[in-house]
Amino acid sequence: MRGNERIIQTGKKKGIGWYLAHDWQLWVMLLPAVVYIFIFCYIPMYGAQLAFREYSFETGITGGKWVGFKYFEQYFNSSMFGSTLRNTFIISATSIILGFPAPIILALIINQLRNAKWKRTVQTTVYIPYFISTVVLVSMINVLFAKKGGVLSDFMKMLHLVPENANLIGQAKYFVGMYVGSGIWQSMGWNSIIYIAALSSVDTQLYDAAKIDGANRWQRVRHIEFPVLVPTIMILLIMNMGGILNVGFDKVFLMQNSLNLSASQVISTYVYDVGVKSSQFSFGSAVGLFTNVVNFIFLLAANWASKKITGSGLM
Description:
The chain contains 17 helices and two strands. Strand 1 and strand 2 form a beta hairpin. Helix 4 crosses helix 17. The two termini are 26 Å apart. The longest helix is centred in the C-terminal third of the chain and has 29 residues. By secondary structure, it is mainly α. It folds into two domains: 65 residues, no CATH class; 228 residues, Orthogonal Bundle (MetI-like fold), CATH 1.10.3720.
């Protein structure tokens, strides 16, 4: 408060040096994160020029011949451009549309539980799948959804949810559902933590006042709890939109096979096949840079829309 009064009295704003000296403890705590981001996020940006050079093992990243947008044009004109872009966007968009609301709904449900012991049990149960590694998760999918002898696949066939001859892990039309569904199951509980934390800040007097006014449970959720979550929802949605073309490589790669390749070949796996396995590093860098540019455009668009609609955003 004194600092604000001093700024008002003198009419001058304090420089960065004053804040560094005044809050040096906070800056020291922040320093490891800044160093980490600088080393692993900013320094690798130097290698982005590889997308515009013809890579050579002899000359390294910066010694290759400058070829401009040659590798971008090569990707845009390739037969895989449309399919990889479409598959990536479909998987990512479906994950956001179906997966993003899931932890919000789960957090609202958990917040309605009044028995503390039962509430902790439910929270612990839904958190556990997040700690299953991707390799183990895909192995579980292959066992549980096998065409013959798979417990869950046989159960779905018994309920006539899928045809009797359906191969859930070997047919392209089921790949998106398998990928998104398993992702929601694994991450829904963990992602709900931030929403549960936001709901904990709701003043309990609002609930009492709503009950006195005759509001039912749904009305309390709609008019008290959901408005509290809106700022958090918008921030996380913007961050998700900023990775619209970043479909996780490891899980897609492990679930991918020759039978579902038409739906599972995304940009990241294509870059691995062409850029890494074939040693076309410049081409792989160009494709990766293209996806980052698209992600950045979606991030700006989502942030702009959020500020227009809700008045809150990242920037």
